[in-house]
Amino acid sequence: MDFSEEQENDWQSEDGFESTDDLSDCDDVDEPMNSEDSEVSEEEDVEPSTAVSQIIYGKDNLTEWHKNPQQIVNIPQSPFIGKVHPNLPTHSLKAVFEMFVTNQMLDRIVKATNEKGNNKYQQDWVDTDATELISWFGLHLRAGVNRDGFRPVPELFSMTDGPAIYGACMSRTRFTLIKECIRFDNAMTRAQRKSYDSEGKLAPIKEIFDLFMESCNVNYEIGKNVTIDEAIVPFRGRCSFKVFMPQKPNKHGIKIWSLCDSLNAYLSNAQIYCGKTSSTPERGQAQRVVNDLVEGIKGSWRNVTADNFFTSVGLCKELLQKNLTLLGTLRKNKSEIPPSFQASKERELYSTRFGFSKNERMVISSYVPKKRKAVIMLSSLHYSKDTDQTPPFKPNMIIDYNKSKSGVDSLDQVVKNYSCRRSSSRWPLQIFYWILDVAAYNASVCYMQENPTIFQGSQKRRKFLLQLSEELVLPQIKRRSQSEGYQKLHKDCRIKIQAFVPNPASVIPANVIAKRKRCSICPTRTGKKTSNTCTHCHISVCNEHANIVCNDCL
């Protein structure tokens, strides 16, 4: 279709390809809508021919859009609602969390950490195990809840000012050693695995990340609307695939493509961006990423909401072949957009133009929220001209987009509020901190959905994390209270342990006879000695100054 030179200049934007994702300003305009129909100006964009007057061509002069729907299309409705896997144990918070940070993941981390510790410290290293490692995770989650992520470790483990949970669980030295030695893969085969296309630069964390994604996909069935966007793991250290995104709150970091439930921000699938794989930039990256992320939900007629980085006509057609729908904003440089859909001073405020595809079930719309602005949408979920009947007369496509666009951003926000991340120059550890944060959030979604009455009022997630962190560290505290070295611990440390284990039963080896000491209460001149000690303050007392209490009264 031929257009005049003056009309060509009208739709071309002077400020380049302006992002149209932020549609919140559509509500800010309170001027009344012109009574003119939203399609009146479309007749001027085409030649007055009865055969083609209802067809609008894209900028490429190949893509055809019809002004009216070409057929009655029944949009398949996805039957899926977000629900927890029936075999997921929800009787305790720790059991739910361990379904995301699985035993398989723990075994690999414990093995790799002990290898690193033995190589670095040799005989001075004491092997860790799953119980101690889980408690180490719990301390990080507690630090995130209390906003202690950047508080110095000596302050956390201070005998006078530090919270009791840290000193009761482990020593400050042990906490620091585990952070220093924790690893997530076999260092001996890392160089070889880096040459594989499936792992490459991500070899130090790839196996743990894949196991975590598998558990996220299995434990919860996401709803009918999903969101795809990028998340940023803050990191400023040395990393070959670190990115800079000035529009994000954390501008420097590692980018992770994420697929989340649009309703509750549950993370179902993710993929780490590892930079260029060749000397030339990757073509069709956005389309490839979406196809990878939706592999587990194809054929379900779920709707995928994405921003203008991902949305394209080609992707929309490809998802329709997989029985998925797409809803998103379009960048203004797409060749399939008709020139008359671009921003123009002639277009009426709050007016909307529609274009319907005849061969595929797709609709494109251009809405004017402000003068000289246009929001261009593409959808295979809709196939009508339905708009809101009250100002600002938004089309239903924009209303549905605003409802479902913030799944990944919501996840970023809740994770950032109580992040367990601590300062580290190792990027695999920063990604693992992100895994812990997401695992705790996904666990909270599953647990609260199955037990909606447990946590009431505001700050439900904070209460969940406080109780979860305590359940994770409690086995380690009990084991420490029953160890042979319990009596040798500092008195303040034993008091902290007793806050979680009221009556610690310290184990005394059978072949060791308690040494007789002078009674601490009797006068020194009496010289009375005894092998009895007080169970609370652990001083030596004779039978005269001791009381016998049964277990029931104790």
Features:
single chain; 3 domains; 554 residues; disordered N terminus; alpha+beta; two-stranded antiparallel sheet; 12% strand; 9-stranded mixed beta sheet; 15 strands
Kindly give the count of domains: 3
Largest sheet: 9 strands, mixed
Rg on CA atoms, Å: 31 Å
Q: Categorize the overall geometry.
A: elongated
| Strand elements, count | 15
Helix content class: 25-40%
Alpha-carbon distance between the two ends: 92 Å
Number of helices: 16
Which oligomerization state do the chains in this entry correspond to? Answer: single chain
The structural class is alpha+beta
Low-confidence stretches: 1-21, 26-52, 507-512
Residue-averaged pLDDT? 82
Bin the strand percentage.
Answer: 5-15%
Your description of this structure?
The structure is a single chain. With 554 residues, the protein is α+β, with helices and mostly antiparallel strands. The chain folds into three domains: 1-87 and 308-404, no CATH class; 88-192 and 413-481, no CATH class; 513-554, no CATH class. The protein has helices spanning 5-11, 93-97, 103-121, 130-145, 153-156, 164-169, 172-181, 190-193, 206-219, 285-293, 313-321, 396-404, 407-417, 427-450, 460-481, 491-500; strands at 55-57, 64-66, 83-84, 220-221, 225-234, 243-244, 252-261, 267-272, 303-306, 325-329, 352-356, 363-367, 375-379, 517-518, 529-530. Strands 5, 6, 7, 8, 9, 10, 11, 12 and 13 form a nine-stranded mixed beta sheet that branches. A two-stranded antiparallel ribbon has the order 1-2. The radius of gyration is 31 Å and the shape is elongated.
